[in-house]
Every structure is written in structure tokens, then in C-alpha cells.
Amino acid sequence: MVRLTGVIGVIGFVQLIVFGLQARRLKDTVEKMDEIATGQTADMQASIAEAGRAAKAMEDVAAGINANVETTRRMAENQREFWQQQMRAYVSLRYQGTIHQDDTTDYKFEVGMIIANTGHTPAHGVRYVAKLEVLPLPLPDDFAFDLPDIPVNSAGVLGPQQIFSVRTPIDRMLTNDEITAVKTGQEERLYIYGSVTYKDAFGELHYTNFSQRLEWLRDGVTANGFNTLNHNDAT
Asked: Running DSSP on this structure, what letter comes out for residue 120?
């Protein structure tokens, strides 16, 4: 029994040593796995950080591309607008002449105006409305420049560097005293004012306003037109 007990003790001691070695190996394995896991975590964190930097760089690249596209778009719009401004129709008016009234035929005063397109493309749907009347000299600053409320039932196409000639009659016969006053007086003049509307080749609607007073030469026959301070503007 003593010998058997000794053998059992030896076996137990040997098992204790084996278990101790196994426990140490297991500890080493766990530590190694922890070390590997820590390394993998660090690598993963580094990979994530690198991916984040790459994503930020791509975001910056995308923002730069978007900014370049926007800049290009604006440049294209500016170039298109500049080209249209260079090529569109520009309609202006100038005085042509005056036809004197004739008491023997009841022919009223008429003033002729020239509508000119000084642009490089046609003016479409050109419409003219004007009024000729006796008004104070000088015109009041708050003068309304009211135009006849009549339907305009005709329009035309005015080519580049081409002109229209138009006439506007006064709505009544003037007395001899009125004629003398508008020709030589200090308080009244004959005025013609109006507006021309048209569309350019790009479909944009424009207008040209005009207002002139008539000044006669000493011969009492020849008159010239002079722009007033107001109602001479255009788009």
C-alpha cells in the first residue's frame, strides 16, 4: 500500500507538472492571440484611418470638380450673354422731317421719324406708336408721356443696318397764332414722343422710347428735332 501510494504520488506529481506545462502553454497561446488581436486591431484602425483620408481626398476632388464645372457653366453663360449683346438688334430713332399743315386742304402737321436697326441681326415684330402735340417749353419734369391707347395691328421685320420711315400726324388743325407760337414763341413747341417695341433674334423683348421737340430755323420752313431730357431710353 505504501509502495502503491508512492507510485500514485509520483503519478500525481508528474500530472501536476504536465498540467502546469499545459497551463503555461495555454497562457502563452492566449497572450499570443491577444498580441495578434491587438496587432490586427491596430492594422484595422490604420486601414480605417487611411480609408477615411482617401474618402476625404476624393470628397475634396469631387468638390474641386464641381467648382470647376460651375465656373465653366458661368463662363459659358457669360460668353453666351456677351455674344447675344454683340449680335442682337438695336433699334434707335432719329428725326426725319416735318410736313407743314395746309389750311386749304385741311392737311395737318406731320412729323417723320426714321427707325433704324444698328445691330447685327434682325429686329422682329417691330411696332411703333407715337403722339404729336403742342406742349409747354420746357416740358414739366413730371410729364407723363401718355401714348394713344389704340391697338397696333401691324408689325414688321427690320433687318440689320436697315431703316423704316414712319409719320405721325397731329390730331387737329392749329391756328395761325399757335403756329407762330410753336415756331418763334418762348412758351410752346411741337413735341413728338413715343415708343418702339421689338424682339431680337434670341426672342427677347425690347423697347426704345423717344421724345423730341421741334425747333424751326429763321425761314419758318425747316425744322430740326432735339431730344428732351426725359423719355429717351431703351433696353
From this structure: S
Q: Which of 87, 105, 122 is the last residue of a domain?
A: 87
Task: Give the integer Cα–Cα distance in Å for 16 and 10.
Answer: 10
* Strands lying side by side in the sheet with 91-99: 91-99, 110-117, 163-169
Total domain count, the chain: 2
Chain position carrying cell 419734369: 141
For residues 81 and 165, membership in a common domain is answered with: no
**Burial of 110 by CB count in 10 Å (0-12 exposed, 13-18 middle, 19+ buried)?**
middle
Residue 98 lies in a domain: yes
Q: Is residue 63 included in any domain, yes or no?
A: yes
Identify whether the C-beta of residue 156 lies closer than 8 Å to the C-beta of residue 83.
Answer: no
Q: Can you give the CATH number for the domain in which 106 is found?
A: 2.60.40
148 in the same domain as 78: no
Segments forming the whole domain that contains residue 50: 1-87
Please name the residue ranges forming H helices in 88-197: 176-184
What are the tens digits of pLDDT across the range 31-90?
777 777 777 777 777 778 888 887 788 888 888 888 878 887 887 778 878 888 899 999
Question: Contact 125/198 with Cβ under 8 angstroms?
Answer: yes
Q: Is residue 116 part of a domain?
A: yes
Residue 39 dihedral angles phi and psi, to the nearest 5°: -65, -45
Q: For residue 138, is the peptide bond before it cis, meaning its omega torsion is within 30 degrees of 0?
A: yes
